Amino acid sequence: MGSAEVAMEWQTLADLARGAALPVETFRATHGGPFLLELNPESGLATGETRSFDPEKMRGDMSPSLKESLILSFAQGVTSLTLGRGETSQLRVAHASVSDRHCVFERVGPLWSIRDAGSKNGTFLNGRQLGPEEQAPLKFGTKLNLGEAQFLFLSPDDCYELLQELCKEPRIRPRSMGKFKADFKAAGTAEKILELFPGPFLVVQAPTSGGDAGGPVSTNTVTLSREELSKKNDRNVADAVFDLSRHTLVRIGRATVTQIHIPLGAISNLHAALVREGDKWFVQDLGAKNGTYVWGDRLDGRRELESGSELHLGNIKSIFFNTEDFVTYAGNRDIV
Q: What is the pLDDT of residue 303?
């Protein structure tokens, strides 16, 4: 395939960040081509004459924003892509200082290069303007200035790491069922409880002894047999309650970087993730050795969660609740 016939679509980093819950191998397989990240997009597609730009007033390095920066992945198999505001460009940019046909990306084998296409305001690589007809090799991490528009050229791994950094959320500290019951009692009314505790919640029934958990924490995940995975662990467990209300991406696992940290041998370093999209929540398996199960079915990919959904992380049971159902569950749960 030569030049792409269909224009590729930009999306916000926030939209792409839904893939941050995927294992890095899956992310690579899904997005095989390099990424182009626009740091300072303009709204609406400017028409008419290209706005003049003084290179002496070029802005310094800008930081990516989840909500404002735009990104796209080059379609696999293409060898030539034109960027500009014009309708014939495969990579259309709305920025008024970008020419209708501004620059051309070309690939030979695994290597990409860029050349200016006679643009009004020039093409700059890491601050250096390309000369007429100059074709410069592109390295991952290169900063591009096309007029006032600022871009980064990223590999899939670079993009994945950026998303991990931008989506990093603090650890969620578990609380006991008894403390939540006391808080609900103090709140008084159902309306006040919903105001103070919008939820949702994840209740993890962690074994109080290491044996039921598949052994102590170690460098390698303990592989459980089918019998061990199917065995119910309703005895000698304690409810650890995690309030998800302030989070949108919650990683669960043995690694210290996770938001829900479960230091048990049967839990993988990155076991599963809970992802909020609007008012919906999904569970995503992250390639866990002992699997993630929803109502007993091993998860392949992700699945939407409903209040009361029963999850198993390996052989560790957990339940996903909205606030109303969690209040009922807590009220009927014996506190040991």
A: 94
What angle is formed at CA 99 by the lines to CA 95 and CA 100, rounded to 5 degrees? 100
Nearest to 240 by CA among 221, 267, 275: 267
pLDDT at 265: 83
- Give rounded-to-5 percent helix, strand, coil for the chain: 20, 30, 50
* Residue 276 DSSP one-character state: E
Bridge partners, residue 84, by sequence: 92
| Burial environment of residue 331 by CB neighbours within 10 A (0 to 12, 13 to 18, 19 or more) | exposed
Has residue 277 got a pLDDT over 90? no
Q: In what order do the strands lie in the sheet with 292-294?
A: 175-176, 237-243, 201-207, 316-321, 310-313, 292-294, 297-298
Phi and psi torsions of 308, nearest 5°: 95, -5
Determine the angle formed by the axes of helices 177-187 and 323-332, rounding to 10 degrees.
Answer: 110
